[in-house]
Amino acid sequence: MGKIEVNKKQKKESLLNTAFSLFTSKGFQKTSISDIVDNAGVAKGTFYLYFSDKYDLRNKLIAHKAGVLFLDAYHALTAQKVTGIEEQIIYITDYIIQRLIKDKSLLGFLSKHLSWGIFRNNLIAGTDNNEQNVYLVFMNLLHASGYDFKDPEIMIYMLIELVSGSIYNPLLYEQPVPIDAIQSYLHDSIRHIIRQHIQTESDSSQTANSAASDIK
Predict the structure, then answer these.
(1) What is the pTM of this model?
(2) Between the CA of residue 205 and those of 121, 212, 214, what are the distances in Å?
(3) Which of 18, 56, 143, 184 is the most buried (most CB within 10 A)?
């Protein structure tokens, strides 16, 4: 990466980091673009090189923060050498929960946004196109499991929405129960969804028979 590219990356990172700090301290509505560029130490014109407006910055910041969180969980998973796709997904889920417990600012900012859109839209978890794509990381994890999955994209969607919809009220408000009281149920639901989508020999036979019928 050349000096110009490094400089551009640093400016964009400064804008993202400054925006996160201001959004979580002052609030999104009370933070202006002028506040962001002044605190980041860049010109307002530089802001518009990367973002169309404050809402665009917020959306990209959500994708960035959530994506980095998922990738951190994945890297921790590989370091621990957890095996078995069910246990791997549960490990990632528990890692994310523990990180959000420790980082209330991140929890509040990502509340209700840790969702399918991060994956389906192939958003990049980072500030440039050289960083890993979260959606592809998870697809590769499924591929490495040794199983064939029926509709893997649907499975990933269901898992993400299950976790996203289940953890925020227990984390933020301890409602309907604190998070530690719901985790075992969450683990069971994750296992159930994964097992539902594992391709069996009978599934393969049915698919082959259906294809043969279509040919006739």
Answers:
(1) 0.83
(2) 33, 10, 14
(3) 18
Question: Nearest 5 degrees, angle CA 138-CA 140-CA 142?
Answer: 75
Q: What is the pLDDT of residues 46-57, one digit of tens each?
A: 999 999 999 999
pLDDT reported for residue 51: 94
**CA quadruple 23, 27, 28, 33: dihedral sign:** negative
Would you say the C-alpha torsion 7, 10, 14, 20 has a positive or negative sign?
positive
For residue 124, what are the CA distances in angstroms to 53, 117, 211?
19, 11, 37
Distance CA 106, CA 98 (A): 12
Asked whether 22 and 36 are in contact (CB, 8 A), the reply is yes
Taking CB atoms within 8 Å and a gap of at least 24, the contacts of 168-176 are 168/107, 168/111, 168/112, 171/97, 171/100, 171/101, 171/107, 172/107, 172/108, 172/111
Question: In the chain, helix, strand, coil percent, each to 5?
Answer: 75, 0, 25
Distance CA(66)–CA(160), nearest Å, equals 12
Q: Is the Cβ–Cβ distance between 91 and 82 less than 8 Å? A: yes
Cβ(194)–Cβ(85) below 8 Å: yes
Given a contact cutoff of 8 angstroms between Cβ atoms, the answer to whether 80 and 74 are in contact is no
Backbone CA torsion sign across 48, 54, 57, 59: negative
